[in-house]
């Protein structure tokens, strides 16, 4: 399948539409993670629909000292990969097309949620991101837009913007794509030297350590729920040690577990990576509620996100995994 390259919104709007339009927004330098998004969009749009991939390196998302000029631009390869993955068109507008009057005076504010974690490390980043996403949603007029879960805070903010400001578009999150060794796919991975890449594996390894600790805690909680409800049953089971085992499980689950233990398990891996050559320099490790990206506490139930950001050499990387509290099992 060959994707048509479009440079203006007028050309995009002139295309006939017979089904659902699904949009995948990117900053280019496409890789298998983007291809997964495009294939998911193709499935949602169906044979009668249309998949549009946007390629736009948004200057509003880059702060002072960040890598706007260094960000890879590979449009020919992007169009080729997009087409092979199922896209009908690639919309690659110029800065003047997206911001015809120069930098916009009116912008979307990410609010308090956009000041946490990534927002704290990159002030103004999410305001710029939401502003360009809002503009691209207007320019591409999709029925559905897909975003990767690797950028969990970005996805949460887009969902919040669409809901709070009544955008008529469905937002779909697509799970993170990883290399065989666990490293999350990112356009910035190409900046890593072989030694830096080995250190960078600590991000996913830390998340997996936290996930494993979480799974163990959930198993203990499930075992604790098997504590006999009646005195008679407890006495009957004590002969084979079930009540003692359940009591032990309950004690461990309630006193030695919780979000703090998950954070500690992940932090141990990151601390070890800080002593490698080259070292990993941690920005943050957080276990948060995805509805507002505040840290969760003991007794939390529902969906959560274990997120990490760090620098290896000159490259800044992020990663996360979802966890579910209150339901037995690993919800990664």
Structural class: alpha/beta
Order of helices and strands: EHEHEHEHHHEHEHHHHEEEE
Instruction: Report the total helices.
Output: 11
Distance between the termini: 33 Å
Which consecutive residue ranges, at least 5 long each, have pLDDT under 50?
251-255, 328-332
Mean model confidence by pLDDT = 89
Helix percentage range: 40-55%
Question: Beta-strand level of the residues, as a percent range?
Answer: 15-25%
Question: Could you give the count of β-strands?
Answer: 10
Largest sheet: 6 strands, parallel
- Rg: 23 Å
Quick structural gist:
By secondary structure, the chain is of the alpha/beta class.
Protein described:
The protein has 332 residues and is α/β, with parallel strands linked by helices. Helix content is 41%, strand content 19%. It has helices at residues 9-13, 32-45, 75-85, 95-98, 118-121, 125-140, 152-164, 194-224, 231-238, 242-255, 259-273, and strands at 4-6, 21-26, 50-55, 89-91, 144-148, 170-174, 280-289, 294-295, 302-312, 315-325. It has a six-stranded parallel β-sheet, with helices on both faces. The chain has a four-stranded antiparallel β-sheet with strand order 8-7-9-10, covered by helices on one side. Helix 8 runs antiparallel to helix 11 (259-273). The radius of gyration is 23 Å and the shape is globular.
